[in-house]
Amino acid sequence: MTDSAGPLTTVTLLEMHRPPERYPPIPMGPHQLALLRCRDMPLHFYRYIYDRVGRDWHWTAALFLDDEQLARRLKAPDREFHVLYMDGAPAGFFELHRFDRKECRLLLFGLMPHAIGRGLSRWFLGCAIRAAWEGGPRVVSVETCTLDHPAALPLYQKMGFVPVRRSETYGMPISDEKRAEVLLHR
């Protein structure tokens, strides 16, 4: 069903209240993998990786930030960025937002199209979850919607996240920046 504002989109907030007992092992296969924390993300690289990971899933919010706005986001002390490389080339990334000692949000997570379907998702999400639990938050959360990859919600649940709230909206869900701002004040 759609209206003039776009398709009906279901947004699901999921939470995890304790770290998993085990994390998926690194995939065995023909690819050389490296996961690196990016401590000083260049604007052009963030825009590139954000676009390549999110293009098929309607990620647009960060693409409309001007250089100053994006620089503030990338340099914020409560943000953390990790980039996955496969055979020496970028293959995905995740972004954490540490609201405070109480909550760490897996704000963005995804693989580039050339890395999807290669058995990396569970391991890569496990790496994101492990990084999110560093610093000892009481809860790790993530939000997904029906515009994301169809396997996103089931994968989050397989990895231990539990849905705590669903909402519906017409068109695109609010931007990840606005969503974080709203959730800070819930």
TrEMBL record:
<dbReference type="InterPro" id="IPR016181">
    <property type="entry name" value="Acyl_CoA_acyltransferase"/>
</dbReference>
<protein>
    <submittedName>
        <fullName>N-acetyltransferase</fullName>
    </submittedName>
</protein>
<keyword id="KW-0808">Transferase</keyword>
<keyword id="KW-0012">Acyltransferase</keyword>
<dbReference type="Pfam" id="PF00583">
    <property type="entry name" value="Acetyltransf_1"/>
</dbReference>
<dbReference type="GO" id="GO:0016747">
    <property type="term" value="F:acyltransferase activity, transferring groups other than amino-acyl groups"/>
</dbReference>
<feature type="domain" description="N-acetyltransferase">
    <location>
        <begin position="36"/>
        <end position="181"/>
    </location>
</feature>
<dbReference type="InterPro" id="IPR000182">
    <property type="entry name" value="GNAT_dom"/>
</dbReference>
<dbReference type="InterPro" id="IPR050832">
    <property type="entry name" value="Bact_Acetyltransf"/>
</dbReference>
